[in-house]
Design goal:
- The complex is a heterodimer of chains A (155) and B (348).
- Chain A starts with a helix and ends with a helix.
- Chain A has a 5-stranded antiparallel β-sheet.
- Chain A has 5 helices and 5 strands; from the N terminus they run αβαβαβαββα.
- Chain A has one domain: TT1751-like domain (TATA-Binding Protein, 2-Layer Sandwich).
- Chain A has helices at residues 4-25, 39-52, 63-69, 85-94, 134-153, and strands at residues 30-35, 56-62, 77-83, 104-111, 114-120.
- Chain A has 155 residues and is an alpha+beta fold.
- With 348 residues, chain B is α+β, with helices and mostly antiparallel strands.
- Chain B folds into 2 domains: 20-211, Cytochrome Bc1 Complex, Chain D, domain 2 (Orthogonal Bundle), CATH 1.10.760.10; 218-347, TATA-Binding Protein (2-Layer Sandwich), CATH 3.30.310.70.
- Helix content of chain B is 45%, strand content 10%.
- Chain B has a 5-stranded antiparallel β-sheet with strand order 1-5-4-3-2.
- Classes of the chains: A alpha+beta (155), B alpha+beta (348).
- Chains A and B meet through helix 1, strand 1, strand 2, helix 3 and strand 3 of A and helix 1, helix 3, helix 4, strand 1 and strand 3 of B.
Amino acid sequence: MIMLSQIRAMLTALLLTVLFCNSFVHADEIMMVRAQQSFPEAMSKLQEQIKAKGYVVSRVQRVDIGLTKSGYKTDKYRVVFFGKPDEIRHLVKNYPELQAYLPLKISIFAEGSDTILVAANPHHLQKAGGKQLTRLMTRWEQDIAAIFATMREDE
Amino acid sequence: MLKRFFTCLLITSGLYLPASVYADGAGLYARHCAACHGAEGNGGVGVPLALPAFLKSVDDAFLSKSIRDGRPGRVMPAFSKLSDVEVKSLVKYIRSWSDSPAATFSTVAVHGNARHGKKLFAKFCASCHGANGEGGHGTGVTFSRPRDLPIIAPAINNAGFLTSASDQLIKRTLMQGREGTPMVSFLKQGMTEADINDVVAYVRSFEKNQSNQTQESFDKEPLTLAYESPYDMKGTIDRVKAAAKGKNFRIIREQKLENGLVKQSEENPNQVIVYFCNFQLLNQALTVDPRVGLFLPCRVTISESKGQVVIYAINPKRLSKLFNNHELNKLCDGMYETYTSILEEATL
């Protein structure tokens, strides 16, 4: 006789399994989204979303400014750096080679009246630590995916 | 109780099957395609799919295979994990932009004289599609800079294109051209149908030379370039800056790795990033692939632990593999040499 609690546990496990599998079916190496918002709106929204996920925006690199000053024609193009201090300290201590890739970054640039956002899937960093990094990289991937989903839907 | 359990199980399975069973074309398009091809299919990094002449001249098989196989080395990734139902839904959604019915083609192969086709290709096609059918430079119609053409010439020597396009599709495109693009009707340019068959035979012959077009595995490359320095922290930072300047880079910033993440007083002084840039190179890279912000700005991290200073840099060869862009790979091979040279010089 199967107890109700056992059934609940089985269903929960099934749900989690399906959700887990579902979230990785479409894992891409480059994560990319089009926000149908002007660049300033999207830029502001992106920083809000990053903070809402518990990250600190450490800096914004204005790529377009340097290009324009050097005489090249370009639309708005920025790189947003962000991270969680504890996670970054942990990674730098245990996987020093990851320093080259930290903090995390999202490129954001204007395309006409839309804005495009691009990030590398954090799983590409997993080589530094193998399975030990899976959980963290998965959460980073999910956080970036959630941020991008909000950017896409918030039209 | 068991009956209820299995009912729940069925319902639960049903809830999560829709991704493949009730695939929503618009949703799938927004999620997977709009970033490159535009929300309304008007193009961007990717080609403008909503172009009426394009939709009228390709069949559903071309669209499906293009989604499935992508274009190796030409940015468009292979969406091999989408289900058949999802691909069909995507094709149906893309088709909704045009009133014209999808083209249909016979599966009969086109036979022609590839040798003669090669001559015609050099005369009529190579100026746009490249001497060997490698296509135009850059990505899509426009991005952060103006482009002269509404669409760049596709790489017709690409394995993804050759798998997707039937002989008859290529032939009809050559005969009728594509309105709204630089692709003209070559019948109107003086070619005969036999000439066009020869060109099709030549284009098909590109299939024999596909070995270098497979998506290379980035896992072969080390994640990071790391060099131990015989100098102290300050000495190494100075040497990195001098080496970067010597390679025509401008030093744009020096900061602690933790800068902006924690209070200034809490920043670890033993992890320092030096950012540098060559704007000409940057402009060139953005033209090749506007997504290269993921490399930007150029940087090395100088780190000291237990008295040993180490310099870390990204490995451009590895990172470039994420982009599925052969043009970018070439540029990154050059960046790899530059980074290596800066790191070697700084630690000499």
